[in-house]
Design a protein that fits this description.
- The protein is an alpha+beta fold.
- 15% of the residues lie in helices and 36% in strands.
- It contains five helices and 25 strands.
- Strands 4, 5, 6, 8, 9, 10, 11 and 13 form an eight-stranded mixed sheet that branches. Strands 15, 16, 17, 18, 21, 22 and 23 form a seven-stranded antiparallel sheet that branches. A five-stranded mixed sheet has the order 14-25-24-19-20, with no helix packed on it.
- It is globular.
Amino acid sequence: MGKNEKFERKTIEEIANRLAEEEFDKEQEIHHFSSTYQLNKQNFLKKVSTKKSKTKFGLKRVLMIAIISIVLIPTTIYASKEIYQWIVNKNNYELNISLSDRKKYNHDHFYKLKFDYIPRDMVEDNDSNKFSYKNNMNSGGISFVLWQLSGKEDFKELYTKDYEELTLNNHPSIVIKKNMMNSGDIQFDKIVYLFFEKEGYVLQAYISNDVKESEWKKMLEKVSLEETNEKDATHYGILSKDLFKGKQPEKNYYLSKNSSNIHKIGDAVNTKVYDMQEVLFTVKSATVMDNIKLLDKNNFNSNSYEQLKDKQLIANDGELLPFNQKIIKKGDGIQTLDEVVGERKVKTKFVYLTATIENKSKKTIKDLYFQNRLYLLEDSKKGLSATKEEVDFTPYSGEVDYLDSHGEGKSFYKMPDIKPGEKREIKFGYFVDDTQISKMFLPVLYYGDIEKLNAKGLEWIDIRQ
């Protein structure tokens, strides 16, 4: 190796090291270069050395190579006294994430999330670690989930459009930008994983598009784990690959069209509340309405009602209005994303039901929650199955939207006690669109896994119109 080559190699090495040191100095921590980094560096120098006999390097080119080399340093290197590495691999829209560690935690302390900054007009929902804006409660905002390291930090995120690694208040973080089409205007299109290395926890933040980037970044920069006692500690899950398996194959359940568990309007259905107290449940009538002005507004689930008001689907005179609905073809989140494949005009409807509940047991029925949502089942060769059609918005909320015998607040679905032998009439209802009224089935006071349509004890009432 000649003097010039030695000089060039030394220059390259100095620049590469200086740039690397400048990056790491920003973190103000002691660095331990990983073996991967050292290997990259050696390969880089070897490559440059091999080519040098044929290539003459100017300073600019040397600098560019050095910068490229730094870029190739794995993103897993960051300021850290311990060697912890985010290992990220993006395959189309599938993001595989691993958190490689050499430190074992005893987890013999309890921690509570402490938020030193909350965006203006944003409030927490009853210590749930979910924050929403006052004018958009129960929708949007930021939700947090705390995960304890288990030594098996290996998980994935689908529908990933892009990702970025940041350091937020000295915590290595990954910001994942998602690309999914969900119902409604609010989209939780960002997920952030923020690593508390000292404590051995990862904080996962779901961020909706109604929160400005400057606000959520400031909030995450001001969040910390405060040591506390077991009673006051923030609930956490165990971060393991079992919790993040990615998209699992959907299992289809079918209900025979001739099943004896399907009843008609007017049938008295014998069932048990909470598998204990026998009742007779009868749907006496079902009416599809275009106008709800005669119904008591206080009996509506405020979330459903206000959402439709906000979307201008309920006129001041109670008329339910039409809207344009986009039909979505779901992607698999790995090779394909969701896409719009059609659009149609649909009309908002309200299905108003009158039913009776008769207590046939010898004990008072207490704490009865009437919260069985309407199910949309469609016909197929194998029987009835849950409809798979995806749309950008539907008035169908998946909840009971109207109930005249309701409780208050979070106990909205709680009904008054029903004495032995008492027969009580209730009126309830659901918002749907006109493409759904031919698919409506009502499960009868069932609190198990309804997705298994033919589950034991699950009775259905066919209220298709």
